[in-house]
């Protein structure tokens, strides 16, 4: 359909859609099923109109997956109803996306044959999470990666994914996982203690088995 639409032109005099050199036989199919483009609104906030413009350009270029890197260490700009303080980590009050905003983007994309792949980056690039919930940080002096010894961390991740599932209908979600500096964990006393207890527990289980 995109190939066909790009063969058409608008006649300003007659105000009709023209198709030169018709009839056409179009034999066209994508080489790759996943044809994506990434935007990063954590580091560079983009207004909704700009995101929609990107989607329009993707459609013209026959791209079908908008990889929306929403959250990173720099900012947490999206509303999470389960944990409403998370977007305290946004750049400013005006640089945020509500759940209706996200739904609007997903629906706009779907109408144009584009899936939206949402990304939150865990556990490494998560400094912005702790602005609203400081207990997610290992300590005040060491603010990422997330505190894996705290059960609350996993409750928050579960809440985010649960809220995302109500908005983003694509079959994948991206969890980042890159550039995890584990020195923060090894240098934080309560995480070191937790790690030792986990290993002792696993050792006991192995011996019992």
Automatic annotation (TrEMBL):
Pfam assignment, any one: Glyco_hydro_20
Enzyme Commission identifier(s): 3.2.1.52
Organism placement in taxonomy: Eukaryota, Viridiplantae, Streptophyta, Embryophyta, Tracheophyta
Entry keyword set: Hydrolase
Any one of the GO BP annotations: glycosaminoglycan metabolic process
SUPFAM superfamilies assigned to the protein according to its UniProt record, in alphabetical order: (Trans)glycosidases
Protein name: beta-N-acetylhexosaminidase
Gene Ontology cellular component list: membrane
Molecular-function GO term, any one: beta-N-acetylhexosaminidase activity
Enzyme kind, highest EC tier: hydrolase
Originating organism: Aegilops tauschii subsp. strangulata
